Structures are given as C-alpha cells and as structure tokens.
Amino acid sequence: HYQSFSAAYIARIMSGYVPIRKRVFDALKSNENAIKSQNKIEYTQAERENIKNGYVLECLIKPWRYYLKTGKLTFGITPFSIIYETLTNDFGVLDLSGDDKKRIHAKAVELVKQKINQPSTNLETFNRSKKINELIQKNGFLETMSDDIKSKCYELSVLEYFEKAKNQNVDLEAVFTQKLKK
C-alpha cells in the first residue's frame, strides 16, 4: 500500500518533521555548549605556578639527578620535543647555532637510516620495515621519515645540552630553580 502514496504526500509528511528535527538539533547543540563551558577549568596564579614547579621538578630536575648518578638520560613519558621547547622557549638556556642545527639534523638522519636498516627481529617489525621502505621508494627518505628525524633532532639536542652541562660541571638544578623564580 506504500506504493500508492504520491510524492507530494510524502514530501508534506517529511516537511512536517523539519521543525521537530531542528528543535532537537538546537537542544542538543545548546546542551553540548553548556557541557563544554562546565568542563573548562580555571586555575589561579598560585595553582599555575604549582603545576609549573611540579613539571620542572619531575621532568627536568629529577631526570638531571638521575643522569648525574647513572649517565642515562630519561624523561619517562615526556617527549623530547616538550623538554626541548621548555629549555629553549621557557628557560632560554638551549640556544643552538645554525651550524649546530645542521650537524644535529645530519646526525639524526644517519641514526634514523641505521634504525630502518636494522635486521627485523619478528614478523611485525619486518612488515613495518617493508611498508616504510615502500613509502621511502614512493615519497623519498626525508619526506617519509620527517617526523622521526624531527623527534631524533629534539632528542639529540637535549642530550647534548645535558652532556655539555655535566662536562662543564654546571648545576642544572640551580639553573632550573633560578629560571622558575623569574
């Protein structure tokens, strides 16, 4: 019996749902905006300073102490890019010359190439290496591996900074603490 409905009749019925649908969508949208505004967290200046102090302690001072004891530098789950940005932009203590950046980039490219050419230890790494090599053939090495190279550049920059500070007997803990007070 549905075949006996005319197009005009169906259009009139469907048009009747438009205001209802609009009302429901508007209600959902306003509810979504209300939830977003409720989830916005406002911090006081003291809370912001406490968070920053905690970050510096956990992500810079403790890794520095560990590095002095063991010679191994680890930042846990904090990416080297965040540490690099903190040392460069927030504290202004990591300042690389153009030549340093070129040298670090060349070293990063070499290390990424070595990593790619390592023999596979299982089927998963073999398949991953195969896909990466196919992408390299298609797009070129620098374009395909740009994210890995960039990450390695951050890592090498931070490692060199910490090594240099250790070799020159710089007390980075004091440097970080002093920069926090500014």
Q: Would you write up a description of this structure?
A:
This protein is mostly helical and 182 residues long. Helices cover 78% and strands 0% of the residues. It contains eight helices and no strands. The protein has helices spanning 7-39, 45-70, 80-90, 98-116, 123-139, 141-144, 146-167, 172-181. α2 packs antiparallel against α8. The longest helix has 33 residues, at 7-39. The termini are far apart. The mean pLDDT is 82.
Shape verdict: flat
**Strands, count:** 0
Number of alpha- plus pi-helical segments: 8
Series of H and E elements = HHHHHHHH
Strand content: under 5%
- What fraction, in percent, of the residue positions are helical? over 70%
Global mean pLDDT: 82
How far is the N terminus from the C terminus? 80 Å
Low-pLDDT regions: none
Radius of gyration: 28 Å
Largest sheet: none
Structural class: mainly alpha
